[in-house]
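Now for today's protein:

——
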Amino acid sequence: AGERAGGRSPSSPSSASSCRSRKSATRAECAYVALLHGWKSEFLLYALALGNRLRRLDGDTPRVLLVGKPHKGQTAPFLQPPKVQLLRRVWRVHEVELVDAPEADATGSKRHRFVFTKLRALEVPFDRILFLDLDVLVRKSPSPMFEVPAPAGMYHGPRHEHLTGSKDGDLIPTEAFQLGCVNAGFLRLDPRRKPAKRRKQVAEMVAEASRIPADEACNLPEQYYLVRKLPNWRHLSVKWNCEVIPSVYIKEEETYDGTSRIHMVAWSDLPEEWFELGDTAEELARSVCIFHFSGTKLDPWWYLHLTPSEAKRQLDWAFRARDPRGLTGLAVSEWLEAVEELLEDVCTGQHATEEDSAALSALVSEVKWRAKAWWEGASICP
């Protein structure tokens, strides 16, 4: 499916190799960056699977994982052994202070209160970075995207007339951000070249984010902040940030008089390019570079107790009406394959150790048990 991740892919002369050819004596130029914080074991597994997949696809480019330190009663178990040793198998681990901005987060659970910690990606000592959320599945080497001018991200919001047919690197019109933003699941950013300037920029941004008042809160606070703060955003096509959701969903709305609620079938509110990625799982497998399990409606770890083929069959059946092209089943089954790759590489690879093998096996067993328990008593949608 797509580019094979079973080994290192040759770097494109116009992408990763160009980063290396201009490398200075004191700092590398390009890096992949991600953020991990909190305590949930599934996010540790996401981080490990992502780092290992990037290593397989583009092993020459550094991978930096920002890991949050303890903060106001929140522990940092991922910085403790044996978890941190596992992370170091596939990442350069960099401890960071969390950015706490609860007033900017409009979600009821405040699940985005620390999302501005992503700003610390601009502190890393690299000229060009690609930032990835942990809940993504990379299927093809993202290294060509280092050549896209920064800042860049997939546009999210009402479609603007000038965005139709946009290619990677095309400027996003400023007026498109009156109601829209960029999806921060995959971003192309340029940190400042000098350390002092990097620290100064991030300190200013962190201070601004911390002062966002509750009356300006939203569900995607860092995304709207970034497009206001950084100028000249470029577009990244949807194949680099393909959200994993059904094509059709059930929409619930109140009646005009507010006395009851009605349900209706609606198309997913995604750009036309998302629908044009393919009409079948086979076509999607050829076109999609990164799957993004955004939101809270579908997490791939829910199916960890199944084999990839079992999960695909179950999801294809359950979503046959809402997702006839099989995007959901394809994405989840391939994420499960990425976990199998991780187990193979860590437990039987060249640098395998008994400690790492035991720690990873225990982690996968825990998440698998939780997935199985979560489904206990549940029935598959008819």
Notes: The chain has two domains: 27-240, 242-375. The chain is about 30% helix and 15% strand. The radius of gyration is 21 Å.
